[in-house]
Protein 1
Amino acid sequence: MSTLELVLAFVLALVLGSGAALAQTPRLGKPISEADIKAWDIAVMPDGTGLPPGSGTAVQGARVFAEKCSACHGEGGKGSPLAPAPLFGGAPLTSGIETPKTIGNFFGYSTIVFDFVRRAMPFSQPRTLTGDEVYAATAYLLWLNKIIGENDVMDARTLPQVKMPNRDGFIIRFPDKI
Amino acid sequence: MGHREGGDALALHRSVPVKKALDDAMIGLYQNGERLMPGNGYPMRLLLPGYQGNMNVKFLRRLKLTEGPAMSYYEGKIYSQLLPDGKAYRFHFLQEVKSFITHPSFGLKMNGPGYYEISGIAYSGNGRISRVMVSADGGKTWAQAALQEPVHSKAFARFRAPWRWNGGSAVLQSRAWDEAGNAQPTRAEFVPCGRDQEAGYESSRVSQPALQQHHELGDRQRWGDQTCLRLSWSSPLSSRSS
């Protein structure tokens, strides 16, 4: 099914559903402005769709990390009592099904790092990092995992091109359900 | 895939197949006649019948139609189950066929040999439960349990079977099938999807929280977990004789 067909199918379902639902709607909430939706529209897709402007390198990211991340994740991402799991390395995934997952040994897409740092970190102040800071922190984490060089510039074009070591390590469990 | 995101601090987001969205996905505003409680996702949450609980995004704030999955942190890392060969399941969101015995169970006082009801719960994310078989001799012989009507799709179904206990050790097991013909896997079949057999399971992290339920009577064993109850009956047995 093409993207257009998907969109049409979805819109149709909304239209068909709305007539019956309207009479019973509990009249909760209020219309939201496009600007407010845009502020929430932060998902980054594996192909880089949704990546914002900005750029950063691991060298720059090391400074961001030391200032905004290391309080929990420890110096150089090695972990601390607040967030014990190291952010790099990891045993081979054949070491057992409880093997700790890291960016280096598990993540299939570099965009996962960017998306999660931007939406959820720092833990106490999510959504406070600038675009440049997120790119830099992402570059630093990829560098810690020996995936990119310390001066490689990560931006909306280069980040999705980073080939993650475990890209092909996944099996879709229920292909017929998707 | 569509994309659903919550308004929690981490803005948890999950990819849901459009097929599912158009089938039976719901947005929950109320539960049991009142507004959702905060811990359950107030003001609204997604509800995907038959899917793992973590897919039912709480504090729902946004649905976005996308061409493919977002590969979010939660599906790209957390809820991707690692397998023994080093590969990992991606999008194993379905709750597969499962049954478990709730009676007799831990803490029940057995008042001597005699008739007891074996009863429990079965469900399948694929549809209705069609059959539950029960064994009281460790799987050597099986009897079909009665299902309490109505049996709803993707919902708990209560099963019951009479059992005459002779007072000795017994291993009780149940196994379920759904209307699509899917069978609850045996423990040996299930192990590749979860933890090591001896270690038991952590059902919240695996797609098919399992198979045969073991209730070992008169055998002092540690508590297992939801899916592998190894129960000690020595305490109820002593109180019976006193």
Protein 2
Amino acid sequence: MTEEEVLPIETEDIDKDTEKGSKTAIQTIDLSVYFDERIAIDNINLKVKKNTITAIIGPSGCGKSTFIRSLNLMHEMTPKARVFGEILIQNENISNFNSVDIRKRVGMVFQKPNPFPTMSIYDNVISGLRLNGISKKSVLDEIVEKNLRYASLWEEVKDRLKLPALSLSGGQQQRLCIARTIAVNPEIILMDEPTSALDPISTAKIEELMYNFKNHYTIVVVTHNMQQAARVSDQTAFFYLGKLIEFSKTRRMFTNPKVKLTEEYVTGKFG
Amino acid sequence: MTESSILKNPSNLKRRKITNSVMIGLCALAGVLTILPLLYIFLYTTRSGISSLNLDFFTQLPKPVGEEGGGMANAIVGSLILIGIGALIGIPVGILSGIYISEYSKNFIATIVRFTTDILSGVPSIVIGIFAYGVVVIPMQRFSALAGGFALGILMIPTITKVTEEMLKLVPQSLREASLALGVSRWKTTLRIVLTTASSGIITGILLAIARAAGETAPLLFTAFGNSFWQTSIDEPMAALPLQIFAYAISPYEDWHRQAWAGAFVLIFLVFIVNLLVRYVTRNKLNS
């Protein structure tokens, strides 16, 4: 594949929508991330509308995870990661804030469920609040119930809130992690392949959650599963070798992509 | 060897099965050999010690040479105080330096700390005693419990640092990220998530360090020095069980030998009790 074939970046219909007045939740301007000298993502310009679900697809190693980890400054955990360009959250440049404040606004759900093993189900839900100093019992009880309900886990665990979080099944643990994430009341939720370690039924539950969350949050989800991208997302970004190849409405992406490479990927010709 | 050679050559399979059984047998044997000395020490000390134990042992001071009876009350209390001082120095320093080299280990200083800790854990305890003599006893112009506790504290540091580092490394990175992603600061993540998750392993390390320090005689010889009288102020020479056991064991008196056995038994028991107590206090309420 030559340079010319990779270059056209298709984002116009999304940009049009954004201009029509819907608010931008996330915008990246010339965002590049390097690990040491190796470039992981290269000059990404992307606008994500508020209250939408954006799927990020692409073959392994194309920079999907790197991209969303840079959105909540999680790349700071990776030694030798360097970031260039700008990231705007609700039109505010995140370089003006410290990472702790950004992460309160931009939550993250990880690939493998990672509840805190030393805590009960109850404590896991409120861990973000408690670690940030909120500890009034009456408030917390309410928050636990509310967020477990949002994560549609309440009915399954309401009688055993004090049991260790690890006593739950994998799918339940992941919904617990979602409850924990929304309990700190973020504006944006990043999901890094949230269902790739789960069975189909748990996956369906989480996809349903994502769909319901749209009214409250802006979601960016990395997925290896193209059917999942097609099912849940409003728009899809296709990454390849660290570059954004195409970004458009999901329906169009999967029926009539503009770039040949995208078509080849979504039809399973490679990746 | 390829798969087909196994199928074609059943004797090979038989040989491997025998090798397997022999090796498992050897492992089991080694396992038994590890338990035996401990069991023997424990039973022998108990047998010889318990018969010499009485209430006097816990309540009386050592009697002068020639008088029968007496006890080690001052040495028992002295040992507890010395271990306490040692723990006050060794546990915080050990845990904090362990955190430093595990969580912030990407720099040169951490490498030096790690290397130094390894060296320190190999320094003979008597040398640490001499060190404590140099930095505490000489400036204070006298032997003291403080100097003894200081020596024991130094002795505990490498064990606790090493264990803390190892245990923190076992905490999956994903838990740190989970906490950070909730907008929790780095130090709170380390303290409330990482350290808590690793706590049972770290506590085991601390107990090991305490158990080792409790039995140390050499570093106390010219720091705490020993004392035949009731003494609880930490800037005076203080009695300690290992010192007392040593003094009594090398004496020519039958009665003192018996008391040395009793002392050894009490020392083992003391470590055991501290062990249980710490585990009870720090148990994870979730798992109980």
